[in-house]
Amino acid sequence: MKKTLTSLLCAAVSLTLLSLACGEGNPPRVPQPLEDGGVLWTECSPEGVREDCSQGESCIFVASHDRHLCVRACDPQTACEHPDAVCCPSSGDDAEGGHCVPNNACEQTDAGVDGGSHEETDGGVQEDGGSATDDGGTQEEDAGVDPEPDAGTEPDAGTDAGTEPDAGTDAGTDAGTDAGTDAGTDAGTDAGTDAGTDAGTDAGTDGGTEAGHTAIRVMASNLSSGNYQSYDPGHGIRLIKGVDPDIVLMQEFNYGNDSASDIRSLVDQIAPGFHYSRETGAQIPNGIISRWPIIQFGQWPDPRVSNRDFAWARIDIPGPRDLWAVSVHLLTSSASNRNAEAQAIVNEVRSQIPEDDYLIIGGDLNTDSFNESCFATFRQVVTTAGPHPADHNGTTGTNRNRNKPYDQILVDQDLRQYQQATVIGSSTFANGLVLDSRTYRPLSEIAPVQSGDSSASNMQHMGVVKDFLVPNF
Length: 473
Description:
Structural class: alpha+beta
Distance between the termini: 75 Å
Order of helices and strands: HEEEEHEHEHEEEEEHEHEHEEEEE
Number of strands: 18
Strand content: 15-25%
Shape: globular
Oligomer: single chain
Helix content: 10-25%
C-alpha cells in the first residue's frame, strides 16, 4: 500500500509539472528547485527501509543531490538509456562512478559525447530547451511572456533616412509589429547600422560571388548556454562567429535584459551591422540574422505552446528571387505535437510564400529520429532526405549526446539543387557541418571557438551549417 501511495504521489507531481511545461500554467520566470525525487529519479534508503529500486538498480548516494537515488550501472563509453542521465566515470571511491546518474551529478569529461551532460528532457517535465541552471534552478519555457516583449524588437530604421536609430528609445513601442506593412520601408531590419550605411547593399562582395552566383552560408543556432535560455555567457556567440554564416536561424534569442540595445549588441558581436528580426511577446523567441536586408518579417502562431511562435523573414538576396527563412523551435513533449506544429508551418508557407522564391525552414526540431511524422509533413514544402550534415567523425546527431537529429536546415527543391560542400580552412564537409567544439580539429579554423563551448553546462544543441551557391539571374 505504501509503495502504491508513493507511486500515485509521484504521478501527481509529474502531471503537475507536465501541465506547466505545456503551457497550461504561467509560472514566474525565476529559477525553480530541481524536482528529481518523484519525477526523474527515485529516492531510496540504503538501509532498505523503502524498497523503491527496480531490478538491476542500486541505491547509491549522489552528492550533488544530497540524497540516495536508484541508479543503474553503466559503461562510460555507452550513453545511458534515460535522456536526463549521464554515465559518470568511475574515480576511486566516488559513489557515483560507473552509474547512470542525473546529468549534473559528476564532473564533465573530455570524451566528447556525454560527459557531464545536461541533456534536454523529452518527458514533458521541461519544454524543449528548459535547461537546469548551475545554481539548481530550472528554466521553464512556459513561464509567461517576456517581461519586456517590445523592448527587444528592432526599431524601424527605414524612418530615419540614413541616421542611426536610437535602439533604447520608447520601450513601449513595438517597432517590429508593423514589419512589411510600409511599402518601401526596411521594416526595422537596419536598426543599429552606422549612419548612412546599409550592411546589406554590398552583399555581392561580402556574401561571396562567383561568376554571377552568390555564396550563402546558413546556420541553425539553438546555442544559448546562459540562465533563462540566454546567449550571455558567450559560448554560442563564439560558435556562430567561428563559422561566419550569412543567415542565422536563431532560437532562444535572448541576451542581457532583452532590450533593443542588448539584442543589437548580440547581433553585432556575431556579425557587425547585420540585419535581424526577432519575434515579440515570447519568453524564448525565435528570430533571423541576415547579411542581406530583411524586407518583411513576422511570426506565425505555434498551435501547441504559448511562449513562442514561428519567426519568419523575407530576405532580399542578390538576384530576382527572395529567400524566405522560417526559424522554428518545436516541442519536446511528443512526436504528435511536433507533427501538428509542422503542419501549421506548412499551411502558412503554402498560403504566404510564392512558389518561385527560395525557402528555408530550420532550427530546433527536437526530433528523436528521421522517422518522425513531422519530417513527412515538412516534405510537402521542403526536402528532408539525406545525406545530412555531420562533424569530423561523421556523426550526424545534433543533441548534446550526439544521438538524435534535433537541429535541422530544411530547404525547398529550388534551393537544394544549389547546395555545396561546406569548406572551412582545410576541412571539407560534403553535406554540411554539425558544429561540435569537442570534435572539431583544428580549432584554429573556427576561431574564436574554444574547445569547451559545446560542452558548456546549459548547452544542449550543436549548430548546423549548410552552404549554397545561388545564381544571381
